[in-house]
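Work Package 3 (structural annotation) set out to generate three-dimensional models for the target panel prioritized at the project kickoff. During this period the team completed the workflow that converts sequence records into discrete structure tokens, so that structures can be stored uniformly alongside our sequence database. As a representative example, we reproduce one entry of 277 residues exactly as it appears in the project archive.
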Amino acid sequence: MLIRGPYDETTGSGNPCDSHEVKRYKQGYTRVLQEAGYQESSAVPLTKPKADLLLAYLDQQIELSASPFQKLSLARDALLCLFAWDSAMRGKEGGKLCLADFHYMDKTPILPSTGYVSGLPLPTKVMILPTHGTKTNKRSRIHQEPIPLSVGPQPLLCFLTRLWSYMEECHAAGFAPSHFLFRPEAPNHSSFKEAPYSTSSFIHRIHKHLGDSGLDNGETSHSFRRGTLQATSQAAIDSSLAISAGRAAAAQHGRIKTPHIVDLYLSPHRHWARFKP
């Protein structure tokens, strides 16, 4: 059971980590680290042009691969990159995406929770309600804020269009998903393991793809979230000429409730410390 709310020493209620003493300790610890030369940094934001180049590279590798299973592994990576950008979800949350998370806009389930069935029609709009929660909301699916996604005009850049094709291809190859959508390779590297796709696995694959394509600049799985929030913010500013509109758009896209956290994501230089010699 999760313990929520500020800690009350008198009654013993609330979260002990949400207390004045803990906050003071963390502030003091931060000052000590700063005095020692440590500087906090964030993930290098991924730009939209680089995200598109990475996707084009993965599509090229899919075409060149002679192994049907490796084609599916590359297609999985491309899909998770698209999903991370479109949804602004963290890599770990995307790796836990399940068949049962997809719903019509009236919250009716789209995909069978017991396993993918071939021939399901592609919906034009879906909402995702994460079964396993998110970092900011660890509660069950019924308490999650819906993540809306729509079919886009460009099939190669549309997550939903590519997802439906991917599930059909997995089904035809004998690897139809039964629970998780993005699954790691089994130790034999010839089949998928029925488990969530871990953050470390996603980061490893991103580094490999960015390095092989000559695009690597230190990006990681969280670079998608930072990048898409900054792009969303800039688009809102460009259309409204108001900085406040950009912050509001980023907060909505990232489902962020705390203004300070929005500022961290939108900071144009918070990742610079990663480039220091």
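The longest helix spans residues 68-87.
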